[in-house]
Specification:
Elements (H helix, E strand, L loop, with lengths): L2 E13 L2 H33 L10 H15 L9 H18 L11 H4 L3 E4 L4 E2 L3 E4 L3 E5 L10 E9 L2 E13 L7 E6 L5 E6 L7 E4 L4 H20 L5 H35 L2 E4 L4 H4 L3 H9 L2 H15 L2 E3 L32 E3 L6 E3 H14 L1 H7 L27 H8 L5
Parallel strand pairs: 8-11, 11-12
Antiparallel strand pairs: 1-5, 1-7, 2-6, 3-4, 4-5, 6-7, 8-9, 9-10, 13-14
The protein binds zinc ion (ZN).
The site of zinc ion (ZN) has 8 residues, from loops.
Length: about 425
């Protein structure tokens, strides 16, 4: 069987001893210090270059590390307590941040603050060895793992140790290979929302019957946790600044928030795995985040559910498992919620579904369906009309989908032979 090489990450919890926790804290402190030190240097160069002088070269992470090493012995001797990789990697991250800024992919890098951003993390690029029940980290020693049995022990490229809500985690990057397989059949469309986290409509072929499903309803749990978080927020704001009680409650808040994001992550991972390993073509909704931010409560709900992350998972997992992830066409927004998934009629004006309308009723053909499933059905039709979209995708700059995996179209009836599908592709503004 053909294997595909790839680099992937595994994140798991550590069970450090109190001495190891102290060393971890020092590692994170060194990372923060080196990053801020390098940022101050870079900032001077950046400001200098704004003025009409002769331009200076922006220092690379290697230049900065050399400078830092010169100063280390006299000015920062405490740095010797942690591995030299911690500042080295921090400076490398800084370089990435600046190059992203210069390419206009990200904002100007910010100083890291213990108070504002928390304890943080530090990275290592060499010398990490993984055993069955512990990892060996340079200058820190053997740290026990809380879970066992799934970490790779060969070809480890690097690791990052991070702190979250009173717990320590390690993320390990390693080279691995997975068997290449291509999933041949089936299309699915997934609508994401607040009432139903994911609503999926799938179809094995154009003629087969649609299958409808929701993921496990996590809404009650999310709502309950958010109520508890709000309550804690109010209590924290009444406690005096710097008191021990306040710190304890902040930790409690972090734990609750971690629990909330764990629930969401679990659901997103399970569903993206299911979709990418079951169907050859998956269409997911493109969220109009900017439009939604106007409604604050909605914006908060959307943010907590990490739908952007779900899309990212759908893309990389499609690459792993040999399926394809696509989005409805960009530019003219595809009205998946307002369109009848049976006859293609689009609701306009007063007919349009509001936020609270749970059922879609088509005035043209009388078709009735649960709102999220109707939307899922429309997205599934986009996946089914893949061939039509593929033709249109030869236009320059058309990014109908971001990742194309070699995907045979056998098992699918060509789009032109069905009645409704080319019409739909035209509706989306595509040339067929
Ligand atoms: Zn209809």
């Amino acid at each position: 069987m053909k294997m595909m090489p790839l680099v992937r990450g595994w994140k798991t919890e550590l069970a450090p001893t109190p001495e190891q926790i102290t060393l971890f804290m020092k590692g994170c402190g060194t990372d923060r210090f080196a990053y801020n030190w390098g940022l101050a240097w870079n900032e001077n160069v950046y400001l200098h270059n704004q003025l009409p002088h002769e331009r200076l070269k922006n220092p690379s992470s290697i230049d900065l590390h050399k400078e830092l090493n010169k100063l280390k012995k006299e000015k920062f001797p405490w740095m010797y307590e942690v591995t030299k990789q911690a500042p080295q990697e921090a400076l490398r991250h800084l370089e990435t941040a600046f190059s992203r800024f210069f390419k206009r992919l990200g904002g100007y890098p910010n100083f890291k603050s213990r108070k504002k951003h928390g304890i943080g993390s530090f990275s290592l690029n060499d010398g990490v060895t993984v055993y069955s029940d512990h990892v060996a980290i340079p200058t820190i020693g053997d740290v026990r793992l809380k879970e066992r049995g799934y970490l790779p022990s060969n070809h480890v490229l690097g690791a990052t140790v991070s702190y979250k809500a009173g717990r320590w985690f390690i993320s390990i990057q390693a080279k691995t290979a997975i068997p290449v397989k291509i999933i041949e059949d089936g299309c699915s469309g997934t609508d994401v929302g607040i009432k139903h986290h994911h609503a999926t409509v799938s179809q094995q072929t154009i003629d087969s019957k649609e299958k409808e499903e929701y993921t496990r309803d996590i809404t009650p749990q999310i709502k309950q946790l958010q109520r508890e978080l709000d309550f804690l927020d109010r209590k924290i704001s009444h406690k005096p600044e710097g008191s021990k009680r306040k710190e304890l409650m902040k930790l409690k808040r972090q734990r609750k928030y971690k629990r909330l994001s764990d629930i969401v992550n679990d659901s997103n991972h399970k569903h993206s795995h299911y979709l990418t390993t079951t169907f050859s073509k998956n269409c997911i909704e493109r969220l109009n985040i900017r439009g939604m931010v106007k409604n604050h409560d909605l914006a908060r709900q959307i943010q907590v559910r990490a739908f952007g992350e779900f899309g990212r998972q759908m893309e990389y997992k499609a690459g792993w498992y040999g399926s394809m992830t696509m989005y409805p066409p960009e530019g003219m927004r595809y009205p998946s919620t307002q369109r009848c998934s049976k006859c293609g009629h689009v609701l306009e004006g007063d007919e349009r579904l509001g936020l609270s309308d749970r059922e879609f009723v088509c005035p043209r053909c009388g078709f009735r369906k649960e709102r999220d499933l109707n939307s899922g059905g429309n997205l599934c039709a986009v996946a089914l009309s893949y061939r039509a979209i593929r033709k249109a995708a030869t236009r320059p700059n058309n990014q109908t989908w971001r990742r194309e995996v070699t995907s045979p179209t056998q098992g699918l009836v060509p789009v032109d032979e069905t009645s409704n599908k080319p019409e739909m592709a035209q509706e989306c503004g595509l040339r067929v």
